[in-house]
């Protein structure tokens, strides 16, 4: 049975800050951000957007009536969950009006959570071929103002429908994965910002990639020549390039050129959004598929997932006939085109806004947020959400 990605959608907030302006404000040479880190813009989540709304908005763009009726499993990968007990996926399940006869869970392992969800979804589909699984990857990366990690912040979500006989990509069964208890990046429950050992994390990212790449080649009996492209988890876009460069010499010159060109295309969206943790790998995949019109059915895409702490995995997918017919390129281009650039001062003001931590009632005005699904406030310790599309019918 062929199982894989049937649909894929993306959402990011309507606000962003230009990295050149942020660099000037931080008394840093702009090239350090735009070239050294590889980021041009950074998405900013207003107070009316959280991981739930980002995921719901991403899914809203790809669902049709058949999907709504057939989705019987919702898996939400995130490392910025909003509740220690209740799955963020349950909120999305309600906001999208999905089939009540469904399982819904949240998965956590840093930036690896969505990959774990996809692999679990494959098992569910194998047992239930008529089912569809909604995998959500949604995060808001925060390190704090004027911190070393500030330049690698971001906000956004990717939604994927996993099914049998997928229209976009069949996920192959060979995978390689590794787990090791390390402290390269973590966020204790008492902190709303992450802690990171930057150099150590970079070194471990590369080490994990090379480990699973070697394991994958042996398991799958494949080599670098078998890939049209390799997509990477992108905490910042230069990180993926560093990993790719460690294996380029394994291929012929034309292969090296192809992989480097396709890597750059896979970073186009991330350069505009920033780090979105669990969704970063899949935003890279989406960017590649939408930016490269020359990829052909039958070509293989490699995927490297890394979640600090740490878990790494390498797996692959094969593009399906007419896959481009099932991408929503225009919607995503419109999403970027309609964003609003804010000043550094405005960004800092938005960043410092926060929800009450004592359960106090608060209401937010959502008229300035163009998203269909928004956070409208908190009442008696409960977050309140609004799906504007339901109220406009």
UniProtKB/TrEMBL annotation:
<feature type="binding site">
    <location>
        <position position="275"/>
    </location>
    <ligand>
        <name>(3S)-3-hydroxy-3-methylglutaryl-CoA</name>
    </ligand>
</feature>
<dbReference type="InterPro" id="IPR013528">
    <property type="entry name" value="HMG_CoA_synth_N"/>
</dbReference>
<feature type="binding site">
    <location>
        <position position="242"/>
    </location>
    <ligand>
        <name>(3S)-3-hydroxy-3-methylglutaryl-CoA</name>
    </ligand>
</feature>
<comment type="similarity">
    <text>Belongs to the thiolase-like superfamily. HMG-CoA synthase family.</text>
</comment>
<dbReference type="InterPro" id="IPR016039">
    <property type="entry name" value="Thiolase-like"/>
</dbReference>
<keyword id="KW-0808">Transferase</keyword>
<feature type="active site" description="Proton donor/acceptor">
    <location>
        <position position="79"/>
    </location>
</feature>
<feature type="domain" description="Hydroxymethylglutaryl-coenzyme A synthase C-terminal">
    <location>
        <begin position="179"/>
        <end position="250"/>
    </location>
</feature>
<dbReference type="Pfam" id="PF08540">
    <property type="entry name" value="HMG_CoA_synt_C"/>
</dbReference>
<dbReference type="GO" id="GO:0006084">
    <property type="term" value="P:acetyl-CoA metabolic process"/>
</dbReference>
<feature type="binding site">
    <location>
        <position position="143"/>
    </location>
    <ligand>
        <name>(3S)-3-hydroxy-3-methylglutaryl-CoA</name>
    </ligand>
</feature>
<feature type="active site" description="Acyl-thioester intermediate">
    <location>
        <position position="111"/>
    </location>
</feature>
<dbReference type="InterPro" id="IPR011554">
    <property type="entry name" value="HMG_CoA_synthase_prok"/>
</dbReference>
<feature type="domain" description="Hydroxymethylglutaryl-coenzyme A synthase C-terminal">
    <location>
        <begin position="255"/>
        <end position="351"/>
    </location>
</feature>
<dbReference type="GO" id="GO:0004421">
    <property type="term" value="F:hydroxymethylglutaryl-CoA synthase activity"/>
</dbReference>
<protein>
    <submittedName>
        <fullName>Hydroxymethylglutaryl-CoA synthase</fullName>
    </submittedName>
</protein>
<dbReference type="InterPro" id="IPR013746">
    <property type="entry name" value="HMG_CoA_synt_C_dom"/>
</dbReference>
<feature type="active site" description="Proton donor/acceptor">
    <location>
        <position position="233"/>
    </location>
</feature>
<dbReference type="Pfam" id="PF01154">
    <property type="entry name" value="HMG_CoA_synt_N"/>
</dbReference>
<feature type="domain" description="Hydroxymethylglutaryl-coenzyme A synthase N-terminal">
    <location>
        <begin position="2"/>
        <end position="165"/>
    </location>
</feature>
């Amino acid at each position: 049975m062929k199982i894989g990605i049937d649909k894929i959608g993306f959402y990011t907030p309507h606000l962003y800050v230009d990295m050149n302006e942020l660099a000037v404000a931080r008394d840093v040479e702009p090239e350090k951000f735009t070239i050294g880190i590889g980021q041009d813009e950074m998405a900013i989540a207003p107070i009316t957007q959280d991981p739930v709304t980002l995921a719901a908005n991403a899914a809203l763009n790809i669902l049709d009536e058949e999907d709504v009726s057939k989705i019987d499993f919702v898996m939400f990968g995130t490392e910025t969950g909003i509740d220690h007990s209740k799955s963020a996926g349950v909120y999305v399940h309600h906001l999208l009006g999905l089939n009540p006869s469904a399982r819904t869970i949240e998965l956590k392992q840093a930036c690896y959570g969505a990959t774990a969800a996809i692999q679990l979804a494959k098992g569910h589909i194998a047992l239930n071929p008529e089912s569809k699984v909604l995998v959500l990857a949604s995060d808001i990366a925060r390190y704090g103002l004027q911190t070393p990690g500030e330049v690698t912040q971001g906000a956004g979500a990717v939604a994927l429908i996993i099914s049998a006989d997928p229209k976009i990509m069949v996920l192959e069964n060979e995978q390689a994965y590794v787990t090791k208890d390390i402290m390269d990046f973590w966020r204790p429950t008492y902190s709303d910002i992450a802690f990171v050992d930057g150099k150590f994390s970079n070194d471990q990212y590369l080490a994990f990639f090379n480990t699973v790449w070697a394991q994958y080649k042996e398991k799958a009996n494949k080599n670098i020549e078998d890939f049209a492209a390799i997509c990477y988890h992108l905490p910042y876009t230069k990180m993926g390039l560093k990993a790719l460069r460690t294996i380029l010499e394994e291929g012929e010159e034309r292969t090296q050129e192809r992989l480097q060109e396709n890597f750059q295309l896979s970073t186009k969206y991330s350069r505009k959004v920033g780090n979105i943790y669990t969704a970063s790998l899949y935003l890279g995949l989406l960017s590649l598929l939408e930016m490269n019109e020359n990829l052909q059915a039958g070509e293989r895409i490699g995927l490297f997932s890394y979640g600090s702490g740490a878990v790494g995995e390498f797996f692959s997918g094969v593009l399906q006939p007419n896959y481009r017919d099932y991408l929503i390129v225009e919607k995503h281009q419109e999403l970027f085109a309609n964003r609003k650039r804010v000043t550094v001062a405005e960004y800092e003001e938005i960043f410092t806004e926060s929800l009450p931590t004592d359960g106090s009632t608060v209401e937010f005005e959502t008229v300035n947020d163009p998203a269909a699904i928004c956070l409208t406030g908190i009442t008696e310790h409960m977050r309140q959400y609004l799906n504007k599309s339901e109220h406009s019918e």
